[in-house]
Amino acid sequence: MKPLSPPGIAAPFARYSHGVEVPAGHRLVRTSGQLAQAPDGTVPEGAGAQADLCFEHITAILAEAGMGPADVVHITGYVTDRAHMAGYMAARDRFLAQVTALPASTLLIVAGFTRAEFVVEIEVWAAAAP
Q1: In terms of pTM, does the model score above 0.90?
Q2: Following DSSP, what letter does each residue of 5-22 receive, concatenated?
Q3: Where are the domains of the chain?
Q4: Residue 106: predicted pLDDT
Q5: Most exposed residue of 37, 46, 92, 127, measured as fewest CB within 10 angstroms of its CB?
Q6: What InterPro entries is this protein classified in (predicted)?
């Protein structure tokens, strides 16, 4: 993957790239939006804990395709309030801690999700050589 950061635009606000070029012929994985529901049905409290669980789900999905966090080319995060941005961003940084070529990233504030206890949802695009 080739991170894209053209001169003449401001640097990214956090640990992400403005764009990512995916070489021709790579396999793509697109996850559904992941919510923070544990296998036993519980939902952790707080944006950081919810985002960590969402990234755990994403890691498992990517692993099934033989990929990992370094293969992620775009992350879209959704939070229900500006107050949840810091917790989400800290979890995103933990997910990307070992990644050197950072993915593109979008963070949106939305009105809500299917259940009131969810405050974070995350989806990714990943690409890897065949």
Answers
A1: yes
A2: --TTSPPPSSS-BSEEEP
A3: 2-128
A4: 97
A5: 46
A6: RutC-like_sf, YjgF/YER057c/UK114
